[in-house]
Amino acid sequence: MTVDVAPRAPGFVSELLTPAQLKRLIPCGATAAATVQQARQGVRAILQGRSDRLLVLIGPCSIHDCMAARHYARRLLHLREQWGQELEIVMRAYLEKPRTALGWTGLLNDPFLDGSGLIAQGLEIGRSLLEELNAMGMPVAHEVVAPASMSYLDDLLSWVAIGARTSASPVHRQLASGLGMPVGFKNGVEGQVQVAVDAIQSARHPHSFLALQPHGQLGVYHSTGNPDAHLVMRGGTRPNYDADSLAAAAAQLRAAGLPEVLVVDASHGNSQKDHRRQSFVCADLAAQISAGNAAIGGVMIESHLAAGRQDLKPGVPPAPELSITDACIGWEESAELLRLLAHAVRARRSRSRQPAAEAAC
Ligand SMILES: O=C[C@H](O)[C@H](O)COP(=O)(O)O
Ligand SMILES: C=C(OP(=O)(O)O)C(=O)O
């Protein structure tokens, strides 16, 4: 650890490395950079309709234990290789959490899980973990909550989300317009899809906005627009993964002149936060994909080494393998769902290769 633990008093400002200093301290090595570049290309090809594979964003709701994250990534890497013809698997390595009201806000903000808020250490620990996962060959996804954090992590991320609580935020839309990786905008917490469609339109256009520069000063960034901003259907007060809801969302994208490509989140509003329902959602999506639905470009799954969740208790170290935010499905079920989705992609592929008359039978 290179940054001293600073005393905290109201109004005290802790020192922070600049993005350039942190990137020098923890550089993105050649292997990690190649992982990021290949995964971004793979995801882009899916979003742009040049690949019939399926993007799968799978992993813990939040990372709270780096050893467990490495362990999970090692297991997932086998399946990424096994299903590489069908699936572009990217691990959820979410380091920030947006909360409905209060709660732990993620490893970047509170790495020691005790409310001490040591963000300088969180950035070092988080960057180091992401570099290591990429160096293993596992590309990673993250949700951007604090826009400034992207100046520290952007080179290590293959996909990022703008979540249901921030899709309407102009600052997040502007940021997305200048990011170098595909960005998924989630529908609003109540289920509003139009807010995400508006966000995608905004992020695909150039903006000029305030951004943290490599050497720590604020600058005006002139973005060119992000051509790979897309929609993530995560449900709301009711699920929206069913064929009718997805067709309605595709129509909203079409009306806005946007590509009809959807990532569907099996968790959150689509599972009504009951992790056991994620397998039903995935089974339904697999059936839609097998039946030829080409608009489904990706699926998100909240998964950990062990099923369920735990509450954080002061002074008690949490179990490493169990989520401390949303409940996740466990490892065995995760592997089974990846198999199911890979077979659905094969079925969609063989269907699309059939002559039209035969396919209509
Ligand atoms: O994905 C995680 C949660 O759904 C999100 O951070 C909100 O959590 P909360 O409603 O428990 O605060
Ligand atoms: C917070 C998340 O999702 P949402 O924005 O859909 O609630 C998440 O994916 O971790």
From TrEMBL:
Stereospecific condensation of phosphoenolpyruvate (PEP) and D-erythrose-4-phosphate (E4P) giving rise to 3-deoxy-D-arabino-heptulosonate-7-phosphate (DAHP). The keyword Transferase applies. Pathway: Metabolic intermediate biosynthesis; chorismate biosynthesis; chorismate from D-erythrose 4-phosphate and phosphoenolpyruvate: step 1/7. GO terms for molecular function: 3-deoxy-7-phosphoheptulonate synthase activity. Keywords: Amino-acid biosynthesis, Aromatic amino acid biosynthesis, Transferase. It holds the Pfam family DAHP_synth_1. Residues 41-337 form the DAHP synthetase I/KDSA domain. Its EC number is 2.5.1.54. It catalyses: D-erythrose 4-phosphate + phosphoenolpyruvate + H2O = 7-phospho-2-dehydro-3-deoxy-D-arabino-heptonate + phosphate. Belongs to the class-I DAHP synthase family. PANTHER family: PHOSPHO-2-DEHYDRO-3-DEOXYHEPTONATE ALDOLASE DAHP SYNTHETASE, PHOSPHO-2-DEHYDRO-3-DEOXYHEPTONATE ALDOLASE, TYROSINE-INHIBITED. This is Phospho-2-dehydro-3-deoxyheptonate aldolase.
